[in-house]
Design a protein that fits this description.
With 156 residues, the protein is of the alpha+beta class. It has one domain (21-146): START domain (Alpha-D-Glucose-1,6-Bisphosphate, Chain A, domain 4, 2-Layer Sandwich), CATH 3.30.530. It has three helices and seven strands; from the N terminus they run E-H-H-E-E-E-E-E-E-H. The protein has a seven-stranded antiparallel β-sheet with strand order 1-7-6-5-4-3-2. Strand 6 and strand 7 (106-117) form a beta hairpin. Helix 1 packs across helix 2 (30-36). The longest helix has 27 residues, at 120-146. The chain is globular, with a radius of gyration of 16 Å. The chain starts with 6 loop residues before the first strand and ends in a 10-residue tail after the last helix.
Amino acid sequence: MTENLKELSFTVSGRISRPIADVYEAVADPAQLSKYFTTGGARGRLEAGADVSWDFHDFPGAFPVQVVDAEPPNRIAIRWASDASTSEDGYTTTTFEFESIDDDTRTLVTITESSWTATSTGAKNAFGNCQGWTGMLAALKVWVEHGINLREGFYA
């Protein structure tokens, strides 16, 4: 017997050759996030209860982001609006989990986003965000390990 799919979600992960505290800080700190991910700038630190904004050159206009939870250096959960969310208030949830590995010489970063409708619009948005978070992980790795902005000139 098969069940009907009611919600879409995805998980991406990658390993970064830096201690967990450094990797967490590169995501939580808006100055660093603006260097490798939010090409139009990030405003506000990712701390529990904060309302921050992210801007991208490839998707102009600041996106409001709600920080649901932050447990340094292990976890950050955020929410942002979507036109294809299963939640009553129209938000999807993205969770960043940071795990120290190899005697804290590397960090496993896992990003999960959920609450997408099982519709063509929900799938299109989920696949687009999955691509975005995968790109973010690659850019995070290159930034934290080598100080290079992988996205510079990539979208504009």
